[in-house]
Prior knowledge:
Elements: H1 5-17, H2 24-35, E1 40-47, E2 55-59, H3 63-71, E3 96-98, H4 99-102, H5 105-110, H6 112-118, E4 125-134, E5 137-145, H7 153-192, E6 197-200, E7 206-209, H8 211-218, E8 223-226, E9 229-232, H9 235-249, E10 258-262, E11 271-277, E12 292-298, H10 307-314, H11 318-328, H12 333-340, H13 344-358, H14 363-373
Antiparallel strand pairs: 1-2, 1-5, 3-4, 4-5, 6-7, 6-12, 8-9, 10-11, 11-12
Amino acid sequence: MGANxxxxxxxxxxIYASAYDPNLWVDVMERLSESVGGLRGCLxxxxxxxxxxxxxxxxxxxxxxxxxxxxxxxxxxxFKSDDANPGVALTLSQRIQTDEDCLxxxxxxxxxxxxxxxxxxxxxxxxxxxLGAEGSVASTINIGRRTGDAFESDDLALAxxxxxxxxxxxxxxxxxxxxxxxxxxLSDALHNxxxxxxxxxxxxxxxxxNRAAENxxxxxxxxxxxxxxxxxxxxxxxxxxxxxxxxAAHRDAARTGGSMSVPRSDGGAALALRTAPLPLxxxxxxxxxxxxxxxxxxxxxxxxxxxxxxRDLFGLTAAEVRLAAAIFEGLTLAEAxxxxxxxxxxxxxxxxxxxxxxxxxxxxxxVKLMMRLASAPAPR
Length: 380
């Protein structure tokens, strides 16, 4: 069957993109399978000496069969290398193979593996494209066909042309799996942070805004996006913001962060805004600027007392946490005693215990400590 030159080049681009996004292997397998007349497929990582340890990315395949393989059929895999099938060891060294290259068709069709595992999936013919091997553990793209003609020479030729690209992309992806996983985790953490965070370039063009930052924009509290640029509503604040971003972004500047207030559109307390320079990419010879992180604190937003932190870090009892929260909210000892139905002497005793456990000696110091522990701290 084969693919035309244009679609083959496009598929190669998708193959290399899969090195950075493993989810794209599904699309790669789908396109490759259609090009060679396949029905369904999977990318597996299996110990070919035992058939065990299956990891799989599936295309048009039922995940239930992966579980069935792990629980039973892995031990029956007639394509693994053992004393009964010495020729199968070639699958670890040869790059492109079909089931006929590995086994006699009659022996294949007589096996339990074929009749109870492959056939129920409506797969008869199999094409194997090796992506890599570490000892006896092999990574392979498996493409299955229904009963019918064998894979044609054009199909095998296409797989052979694409195989080196897939090997390189797969190897890159394996090397990047750890670092990219960390990056994605950090990205998720930034996106889910309770603190509003923006990322802008030297021209204040908005690159990223987490959920809390998007809420600031939706509330029209003093910041907006005009023509793709983050900017305060107030003209004077907008000009100052541009200067701060410029100081943090440009290579030829000292690249220092700064802070400023942004008047709220509703007349409430100003937003506290801070810029921080992010590193220039290593080797960015022609890049004169770097992204800038912009953090915003809405001084109108309530700050919850850090109850769990007081319990976990200092061992405060429930009654002591309750009193610390009341002080955090601005209540006097007399007001707290009345609120909790206690005597002022009892409240004073609880406060002394709080001071002893937290290492502070005044209520102002306790509030300051709690502000540092709060999930949405005030700007310093």
